[in-house]
Amino acid sequence: MSFAPVYGPGSRALILGSWPSPKSWDMGFYYGHPHNRFWPLLARLTGEALPAREDVAAKRKMILDHGLALWDVLASCTIEGASDASIRDAVPEDIGFLLARAPVEAVFCNGAAAYRLYVRYMQPVSGIGAVRLPSTSPANAAWSLDRLQEAWGAALGPYLGKKEVK
């Protein structure tokens, strides 16, 4: 089984990856590879401080404070290392479970593999079209953090809830 989804009652936008990398498994949370740009990108998009790599609670809080949800398309699979191209025996997560618990209006896929898997396995259930975003993986070196911020910001911007000031 993959990691549990991160969601709350204000989660309007769902960000989906394909499957956790070995570094993520080692850390026990999403986007655990130290060179993956997901968390630095999310910090830029939300205006939050970048959480420490091991600070899972701060990462969860960042997701929830800004109206997001985070999950992977696959519940299980056979994969070689972190190579999405090697995925076999794919078993999707139950998107209906999440949609019954969070008011998700939009789906964003982190890279081509997540998008392809979502369209195949989850979209027929959810009925929600997805936006394919450039991968934050270190393997996607053609995209700088600035370029990722521009693309992700344009797509996610309307859904990023603002943190309440108390």
Automatic annotation (TrEMBL):
Q: What is this protein called?
A: DNA-deoxyinosine glycosylase
The molecular function GO annotations come to: DNA-deoxyinosine glycosylase activity
Return the InterPro entries for the record: Hypoxan-DNA_Glyclase, Uracil-DNA_glycosylase-like, Uracil-DNA_glycosylase-like_sf
Signal peptide stretch: none
Q: What is its EC number?
A: 3.2.2.15
**Cited CDD domains:** UDG-F6_HDG
Q: What are the record keywords, sorted? A: Glycosidase, Hydrolase
Q: Where is the Uracil-DNA glycosylase-like domain?
A: 6-152
Gene3D superfamilies membership? Uracil-DNA glycosylase-like domain
Work out whether the entry's keyword set contains RNA-binding: no
Tell me any Pfam family this protein matches: UDG
Identify which top EC class this enzyme belongs to. hydrolase
